[in-house]
Amino acid sequence: MANNTTLTEQTQQNILQYINLKGYQEGDILPKEDELAEILGVSRVVIREALSRLRILGFIETRRKRGTVLKSPDIFYGVKTIINSGKLNLESLKDLFEVRIMLEIGMADFIFLGKTPEYISILEKIVSEEETTDISDLDKLAILDVQFHSTLYKMSGNKSVRAFQNLLNTLFTTYSRSKNWRRRQIISHATLVEIIKSGTPDAFRTAMRLHLNTRFEDLETLFKKKESLSLLEEIKEEKKVSGKPASKVKKTPGKNTSHR
Questions:
Q1: Pairwise CA distance, residues 244 & 78, whole Å
Q2: Of 64, 75, 171, 214, which is most buried with the most CB atoms under 10 A?
Q3: Is residue 232 in some structural domain?
Q4: Count of the separate structural domains present in the chain
Q5: Do 26 and 148 fall into the same domain?
Q6: How far is CA 247 from CA 32, 184, 214, 239, in A?
Q7: Residue 148 domain-assigned?
Q8: Range(s) of the domain holding residue 23
């Protein structure tokens, strides 16, 4: 089987192996570029490119008067870059929302292990503010929704899960609730709080599944609309390329529509 790994990629892996072999720890200063080039037997240009990749991945950072310092990588850095790019297709966006649903149903046991009077008080304040917010103020309700669910992630005590949820916050607020969400909602935030206070993880799992059901239905409708719009845009673009008009345009009186 042919090896398609480039010299830069191989050097990147060799640097990581060297770091492990020498026992470098977070905060330690790595050898300079020319030293690494001599150790690994490649040019400084290759070393520089490999270090640049490691820097992007969050393995290292450059500090003034110190040099290249080893750090603990952010495992979601790449995901954050992709999400913030705005270039995710509809299928990927839908997958991310489904991941959210899986996480929030699955972390019930951890939420109950991490619940404290302080966390319950925070949740109750959010619910109280929701109930006094005008139902037509979808932007504020979306923010409160993020605050409520973010608190649940904090209660789980898992830093990686919290980090991932923070990445999705932008998506949660972008796709706000439908106008009739309250009438259609089966389980409210207030009910979820009561279950956390006096219920069981199993009861919470069932309630959360029902709570997110309306949200998931809204997303299904939203994504179908977006898919239709995307398809329409593609058809218009194809017609432009082929030289055919995308649609019949009514002539506006007084406008010259003749070709020059």
A1: 41
A2: 214
A3: yes
A4: 2
A5: no
A6: 62, 38, 37, 9
A7: yes
A8: 7-70
Contact call for residues 62 and 69 (beta carbons, < 8 A): yes
Retrieve residue 151's tokens: 């608190």
Helix (H) or strand (E) run with residue 251 in it: none
120 and 200 share one domain = yes
Asked whether residue 40 falls in the same domain as residue 84, the answer is: no
Asked whether residue 251 is domain-assigned, the answer is no
Q: Flag whether 252 is in a domain.
A: no
Query: Distance between CA atoms of 8 and 14, rounded to whole angstroms?
Result: 10
Helix (H) or strand (E) holding 31: none
Single-letter amino acid code for the residue at 252: T
| Residues 133-165 pLDDT 10s | 988 888 888 889 889 999 999 999 998 888 888
The closest alpha carbon to 199, from 109, 103, 122, 124, belongs to 109
Ramachandran area for residue 128 (φ above 0: left; ψ -120 to 50: alpha; else beta): alpha
What's the pTM value of the predicted model, to 2 decimals?
A: 0.63
Is the dihedral angle over the CA atoms 170, 176, 182, 187 positive or is it negative?
A: negative
**What are the pLDDT digits (tens) for 185-233?**
788 999 999 999 999 999 999 999 888 877 666 666 666 655 555 555 5
CATH classification of the domain holding 45: 1.10.10.10
Alpha helices in the chain (DSSP H): 7-22, 33-40, 44-56, 77-84, 90-106, 108-114, 117-131, 138-156, 159-174, 181-184, 189-198, 201-242
